[in-house]
# Entry
Amino acid sequence: MIILALNCGSSSVKFKLFLWEKRQTLIKGVVERIGISGSFISFDLPGKGEQKTECECPDHRTALKILIETLLRKEHGVVGDLSEISAVGHRVVHGGEKFKSSVMINDEVLQAIKHVQDLAPLHNPPNIAGIEAAQEVLPNIPQIAVFDTAFHQTMPENSFLYAVPYEWYGMYGVRRYGFHGTSHLYVSRRAAVLLGKPSAETNLITMHIGNGVSIAAIKGGISVDTSMGLTPLEGAVMGTRCGDIDPAIILFMIEKEGFYAEEIDSILNKKSGLLGITGKYMDRRDIEKAAAEGDHRSQLAIEIEAYRLRKYIGAYLAALGRTDAIVFTAGAGELNWKLREKVLDGMESLGLVLDKKKNEAAVSREKETLISADDSPLKVYVIPTDEEIVFIEDVVAILEGRYETHTHFTYSFEDQKYKRKVE
# Structure
C-alpha cells in the first residue's frame, strides 16, 4: 500500500510517498514559492540524493501536477502508474469541534472544513486548496484528512472555554482547540511504553518546542489541557508568535499606532516572540550565539522563554495531580539541551531532578533518552517526535476499515518491540 502524504501551505506543498508494508519512504520533497516567481520542486530519493528543478507554479493545482509528473518519471523509479497510490492523506490544521479523528474526505467533510476556515485563516485555506487540487488531479484516489486539533478534542469544558460571553462559543466557536496534536499523541504513547504503563494509566506533560511551541497536559492518556488556543498564537513564547499577553495590549497599540486588524495580526504572529524580543533573531542558535557575545536582548529572550515554559509545567503539574513524566520533543525540545536545563532549573522541590550529564548528551533526533536523575520522583524524557507515522497509520487504518478515534485506537509504535525507522 502506497500513501501520498501532503502538507499544503500558502506557498508550498510538502509531500512524502510512503510504502506502508516496508515502512519505507519512496520519495519526499516540497514544491516551493507557489504563486511567486522562482518556483521550484526539490525532492530526495533514497540512495540518489537531493534534486531540484525550477518550474512555473502559479497555484496549488499546478503544484500537484508538477508533483505527479515527478512521481511518474521513469528515471526516478518511484511509481509506474497513479493507480499504485492507495490514498492521499492531507494535513488539515483546524477541524473545529466537528472532527475528533481523521476522516475520509467527501463533499460534506470538505464543506465542514471550509466552514471553520475563519478559525485558522493562515492555514486552512491552503489546506483546502491542496485538497481540491488533489481531488482534481487524482480524482479516483481516496482522500483523507488528518487534523492537528483532533487529539485535543478530549478536553473538558472547564479547560476549553474562555471567560468571555458564552454566546461567542455558540455563535462563532470561540474556545480553546489546541494544535500539534499528532506530535503530542506520538510522544505520549511512546512515553507510556518507556514507563512500562498502559497509556490509559499515564499522566504526562508533553512539550513540543519548535518554531511553534505547545504544551499539553495528558491525563489517563488523553489531552485535558493545552497551551495553544483558538489559534496557534496563544501559549508559550515562540519563534515569531507572542504567546500569552494581556488582550488590552492590542487595544492599547491600536489606539497608539492606529493599526488595522491585519497589521496587528501580522505583528503578533510574525514579528513577536523571540524575534520581537531580540529584534533580530528567531532561530535559537543565533540567539544563543549572540547571548554568548554579550547581547542583552538575546540573553533576555532566553530567560523569558525558559521562564514561561517553567510556568506552564507548574500549572499543569497542579492540573494533573499525580504526574509520571515530562516529555521534551520537536526541534529545540530534542536538540537544545541548554534550554531544557534552564527550564528545569530549580524545580527539584516539585520532584523534577535533572541529570545534567544525561541531558547534555541527549542531542539526537533518533534516540529516546531518559534525562532525569535516578532518584528523581518524576521522570524526564527526550522523545523525538514522528508525526508522519501517526498520519500514515490513520490513513492506512481508514482504508482498511479498522480505524477508531485515537482514544480507542492502538498504534504500531505502542508495541514494546517497536523500533523507529530513521530516514
Observations:
- Residues 324 and 330 are 20 Å apart (CA to CA).
- The first strand starts at residue 2 and ends at 8.
